[in-house]
Amino acid sequence: QVQLVESGGGLVQAGGSLRLSCAASGRTFSMYAMGWFRQAPGKEREFVAAISGGGTITKYADSVKGRFTISRDKAKNTVYLQMNSLKPEDTGVYFCAADLTNVVPTATSNYNYWGQGTQVTVSS
């Protein structure tokens, strides 16, 4: 099994930056594709970014492309989401997730393991 713990959320002004971290357990961390999702109040959970197990393939939602960057540090068993030029629309609870089967999955149903989430609030 895989255990995921997110951190780094907070309150920022529009145009600011945050870096989220997701610490994963287990020696098999490098075998999993990792993704970031977010959920705003009253809305469905949506895909944000994903990275392959090897860290060489990434995918982004159109709404964040060019502003967000996903990366992973296998030595630290950690996945990051660097968020720049933040907008109020980026506000929500951000979750990291892990999947062993797919390369860069984008659907919530693809992922087997989820973190507890971290709140990101962007003020205008």
Task: Please supply descriptive tags for the structure shown above.
mainly beta, four-stranded antiparallel β-sheet, 124 residues, globular
Overview of the structural elements:
- By secondary structure, the protein is mainly β.
- 0% of the residues lie in helices and 48% in strands.
- The chain contains no helices and eleven strands.
- Strands 2, 4, 5, 6, 9, 10 and 11 form a seven-stranded mixed β-sheet that branches.
- It is globular, with a radius of gyration of 13 Å.
Quote the average pLDDT: 94
Q: N-to-C SSE series?
A: EEEEEEEEEEE
Q: How far apart lie the N and C ends?
A: 40 Å
Radius of gyration: 13 Å
As a percent range, the share of strand residues is over 45%
Low-confidence runs of at least 5 consecutive residues: none
Largest sheet: 7 strands, mixed
- Count helical runs: 0
- Strand segment tally: 11
What share of residues is helical? under 10%
Shape: globular
Report the structural category: mainly beta
